[in-house]
């Protein structure tokens, strides 16, 4: 969809123009995919899906379309995906369902013959090993340690060779979007309590809150400032604490700090815009 949308914006493209557009879209997909790889549960989900393939519960072609050779020239046609689409999610899903129904008439063997199962086994094993290395470094050193960053970067490089079917790719992307929506919901509510209800100046709120999203310290500091609005903040203290606890819960679920969730989503958005 991204490829055809881009192709439709330019008249009479040359072969070089087609290649340029395809490479730009592929670069965007790679950036989104590398960003998603930094979310530990995304790779866990993918590995769980492959375990279902090995158990005979789903077909390999329901999970991946193949692999990209990092040493080979880039293919012209990029991976199909809904990222960047302006259509509502329900319409995109409807399109996918329609396509699935049309493809049901094709033989299962035709779908899987283009993917070497032994190569897939090797690739998924390499992904599993690198994923475990990254998880161990996170557990030992935390997310910000150089060793952890190196292992996560290597995980992104391994994951970049995978080409997922659109539904699986979009599932991973949408999970991160939903996580970001939950973060925004709580942050907006906290700002409403402090700025709108308690009349705390927005500038003060942003200065204290940014980078301290799950800590009580910024709120304590705001109350201690003894400003006219400081006393009003005490009236909303319990509600603010509940929202902070929900943000902490997101950090526990994702294994990421709120700042890291935002950074991953920012880079995903940049990739989608390419």
TrEMBL record:
Pfam families associated with the record: Sigma70_ner, Sigma70_r1_2
Q: Write down what this protein is called.
A: RpoD
| Residue span, RNA polymerase sigma factor 70 non-essential domain | 39-251
**Which intervals hold domain RNA polymerase sigma-70 region 1.2?**
1-28
Q: Which GO terms describe its biological process?
A: DNA-templated transcription initiation
**Which molecular function terms from Gene Ontology are attached?**
DNA binding; sigma factor activity
Residue spans making up a coiled coil are none
Q: Which portions of the sequence form the region Disordered? A: 71-116
Q: Provide ranges: composition bias, Acidic residues.
A: 93-115
């Amino acid at each position: 969809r991204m490829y055809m949308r881009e192709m439709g914006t330019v008249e009479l493209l040359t072969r070089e123009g087609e290649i340029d557009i395809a490479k730009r879209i592929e670069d965007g997909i790679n950036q989104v995919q590398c960003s998603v790889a930094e979310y530990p549960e995304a790779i866990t989900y993918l590995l769980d899906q492959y375990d279902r393939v090995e158990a005979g519960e789903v077909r390999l072609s329901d999970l991946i379309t193949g692999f990209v050779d990092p040493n080979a020239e880039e293919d012209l046609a990029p991976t199909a995906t809904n990222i960047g689409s302006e259509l509502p999610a329900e319409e995109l899903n409807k399109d996918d369902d329609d396509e699935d129904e049309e493809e049901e008439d094709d033989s299962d063997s035709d779908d899987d013959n283009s993917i070497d199962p032994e190569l897939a086994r090797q690739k998924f094993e390499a992904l599993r090993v690198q994923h475990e290395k990254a998880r161990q470094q996170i557990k030992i050193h935390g997310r910000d340690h150089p060793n952890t960053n190196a292992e996560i970067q290597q995980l992104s490089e391994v994951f970049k060779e995978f080409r997922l079917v659109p539904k699986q790719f979009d599932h991973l992307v949408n999970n991160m979007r939903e996580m970001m929506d939950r973060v925004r919901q709580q942050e907006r509510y906290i700002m409403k309590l402090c700025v709108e209800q308690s009349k705390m100046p927005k500038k003060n709120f942003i200065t204290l809150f940014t980078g301290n999203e799950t800590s009580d310290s910024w709120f304590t500091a705001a109350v201690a400032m003894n400003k006219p609005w400081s006393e009003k903040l005490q009236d909303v203290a319990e509600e603010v604490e509940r929202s902070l606890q929900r943000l902490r819960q997101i950090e526990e679920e994702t294994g990421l700090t709120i700042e890291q969730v935002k950074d991953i989503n920012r880079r995903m958005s940049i990739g989608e815009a390419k």
